Amino acid sequence: MLVKLAKWLDLIKTELKEDPKILIYDQEKEVTFFLEEILEPYKVEIISVERLEFSKEDLFQLVVLVGRGGEDLSFLLNKVREFYEESKVCVVLNFLKEEDIARYFDLGADEVVFKPFTINELKARLAKLFKEYYLDKKIKRFLIEDPLTGVYNRRFFEEKLREEAYKALRQRHPLSLMMLDLDNFKWYNDNLGHQEGDALLKLVGETLLNSVRAGVDLVFRYGGDEFVILLPYTTKEQAVQVAERIKKNWEIYNIPNVKISIGIAQLEDKGDLEKSIENMLATADALMYSEKKANKNLI
């Protein structure tokens, strides 16, 4: 069972690029002790608290709620589900014949464990929960990510664009959009082959991700060799600085005749969400093609 547990923890680290982390509400610390003993070889961070404080900034693969006596964990479970939507949740209860565990599953628990339990049982439950977390994340990424470049796909862009634009207009904070296109990509792809072309697109994706704020800015593949970046809380002037950083980072690779053309626009309130979005897209697109034309004249 330890082999299976190690496998899923390793996949979370290597493929999801996440550091395994557990939040446990445990007033008596008994379950905390067992978790620390089981997970110590795998460098899993365990945060054990007697009072839960919630923050959407935190990322936990697993949240464990340990009931004391006949404690009702319904309220805490509701809050955990509100703040940690992606986390797997395990409820640990004292064995009571009259306990209705169905309500915990109805409230969003992924597993219910009764005390007393064996170490092997706890290991098996942990392996199952980390496996489910990993698979859920992989499926979600498959749906929203571009498999070649590792950035988000166009379908997810259309969803996030409306979400971020609505939020920016309502809360009156700036939102900028950047459209990017590779100059001479067709020539590069036709002459060096599709494999080299794919490698180049992957390199663009890496460059863009390394040039923006992780967890804030959103990078998408718009189609072919076109990319889009959404920059929340960013003015056009600030976005220009990001664009300069992208170009500087791209120039490091010194790829002959392959430049990145960029058009930038800031969201303006046109009295209607769709009109505001259309205006921002059209402005960025026009500026990108203007720069692309200028770059061709320089080659």
From TrEMBL:
Looking up Pfam families in the UniProt record yields: GGDEF
Domain of life of the native organism: Bacteria
Xref: InterPro entries: CheY-like_superfamily, Diguanylate_Cyclase, GGDEF_dom, Nucleotide_cyclase, Rev_trsase/Diguanyl_cyclase, Sig_transdc_resp-reg_receiver
Response regulatory domain boundaries: 21-130
One GO MF term on file is: diguanylate cyclase activity
Q: Name one GO biological process term.
A: cell adhesion involved in single-species biofilm formation
Q: According to the UniProt entry, what is the EC number of this protein?
A: 2.7.7.65
Where in this chain does the record put each GGDEF domain?
173-299
TM spans (from-to):
none
Gene3D superfamilies in the record: 3.30.70.270, 3.40.50.2300
The cellular component terms of Gene Ontology attached to this UniProt record, alphabetical and capped at eight, are:
plasma membrane
> For this protein, what reaction is catalysed?
2 GTP = 3',3'-c-di-GMP + 2 diphosphate
What name appears for this protein in its UniProt entry?
diguanylate cyclase
